[in-house]
Amino acid sequence: MDLYKAVLLGVLFSAVSAGVLDEYAKTEGARIMSILKREYSVGTVLECAIKCNAETAFTCRSFIYIEKDQECLTIPANTKTEHVLRRTSTALYEKKVYLMECVNGIGMDYRGTKSKTKSGKTCQRWASKYPHNPNMTPSTHPNADLESNFCRNPDGDSKGPWCYTRDPETRWETCNVQDCSASKPPTVVELTCSTGDGVAYRGTVAVTTSGKACQAWAAQTPQKHNRTPDNYPSNGLDLNYCRNPDNERMPWCYTTDPETRWEYCKVPSCGDVPGPASKPPTVVELTCSTGDGVAYRGTVAVTTSGKACQAWAAQTPQKHNRTPDNYPSNGLDLNYCRNPDNERMPWCYTTDPETRWEYCKVPSCGDVPGPASKPPTVVEELTCSTGDGVAYRGTVAVTTSGKACQAWAAQTPQKHNRTPDNYPSNGLDLNYCRNPDNERMPWCYTTDPETRWEYCKVPSCGDVPGPASKPPTVVELTCSTGDGVAYRGTVAVTTSGKACQAWAAQTPQKHNRTPDNYPSNGLDLNYCRNPDNERMPWCYTTDPETRWEYCKVPSCGDVPGPGSVMSSHGQSYHCYADDTQLLFSSPPPF
User: Fold this and answer.
1) Which residues form the Kringle domain (predicted)?
2) Could you give all domains of the chain from N- to C-terminal order, each with its CATH number?
3) Res. 57: pLDDT tops 80
4) C-alpha angle with apex 440: 438 to 441, nearest 5 degrees?
5) What's the average model confidence in pLDDT over 259-281?
6) What is the mean pLDDT of residues 273-281?
7) Three-state DSSP state, 75
8) What's the pLDDT at 381?
9) Distances in Å between the alpha carbon of 446 and those of 399, 429, 438, 506?
10) What pLDDT, on the 0 to 100 scale, is given for residue 190?
11) Beta-sheet pairing, 62-66 with 162-164
12) φ/ψ bin of 313: left (φ > 0), alpha (ψ from -120 to 50), beta (otherwise)
């Protein structure tokens, strides 16, 4: 009876897991940057998805899951509003409903970003009372996602999504949102061998890498799913052939084994098809490490701290997906240290239940003596900071706000993995400020339980006088070029008209973009700035309901000619002939 209950619970868990994750589109090796986010420690990707679905601090449109560290970041943005950045060992999951720019039926579930009516009128913000006093607002319809000024259908109007307009003469109008069934699938080149991630593969392999038979895509037993021919009409989901409809790293299929939901398939690579003078690629396998150690195939099986490595094929004590089946070409033999996912050096999961994974110290090929061997060049260690301060080895041990630094080898009050063992070449001595992970300046964990970490103010090498030393020239502009990082004008209002909060203030918005933390970014008073390489100047707002918004600052390209002066909002802006105008499509503020 207990076994029956366990099996039943397992089946129910699998069904719930599949249902929740099927709401998301996954992109492996990607992330997006967002000022607003929440961070959680989780055990599985399902837990992360549940955190996103239950998020109350903001509308969660996507989450980032770092399987190796079991970290979860919930985010209000997605790839429609922010740039995608590459990051190894992360996966970006986006709610599909927020990616769709078409409607099903009358579009009550439409969550796209269209904000113009069918006649071209701009939509009024749902929370605004001007020019029309709405009777449908975010407070009256909390589940309808009435955010910003996006077209929505909160009342089930038969004509589809609509909005109040900013035209005083037109209270509301429907929006011209495309019907999902009318969209035409793109032309895809169909291949019977696999290239890249195998999205275009249309061969007839129908068995997984472990030999399990594939379930037909149109079937719902034993695996219930939404990767059906109807939902993915352009992905070749014929019969039970291996396919890649959702941008996984290779073709896969659901299996007919009730205990195994899905597995990757081993399909022939187009490079395996013989051609004139074709030659298989040479893979050099090394017993010493070069670069990031991806080609290392030695037998070291212990981490830098002396912990034994768990076998890659095992799932205890660490459950993971870096298995020999999933990474067949990465040499995941026994429990040897490897680098299957482009980390900075070989690593392994450990047999210690308290330590998920650690880096390994494998011999460098440079340590093997050879003819006319030459000692490696060691980067000079500095007691002042240049650039991002990675080479800084000084003794500052206090943060910009005056908090004492926690020793890097300590785990209280802050638990972390930036330890001397994990980062042996980064000078993590005592509690001195360092930059082991390529932040923008040296930093440290603090001894204050309420503040995990902060940047440090270490002396710049430019501050040390030398022969004929000369400070660098920084061009400060009162108009904007590119992303506006050099903008030093006096605009202090956002695109929607909200007043900017002073950068030194912590109310109503609490933040760490302060003049102390960003001393060279011109965070004077409450002027719009771009201290963190956003796509244009922005500011925190004095409205407790709106954390931050972009600003509309004058572009240097708006000036009619060289040396001319323009006026905007009562300010004069001097621009020059070599300034370049860039146009941006501003994303909605969150």
Assistant:
1) 101-180, 192-270, 287-365, 383-461, 478-556
2) 2-98 (3.50.4.10), 101-179 (2.40.20.10), 381-465 (2.40.20.10), 473-590 (2.40.20.10)
3) yes
4) 95
5) 65
6) 40
7) strand
8) 52
9) 8, 15, 18, 20
10) 55
11) unpaired
12) alpha
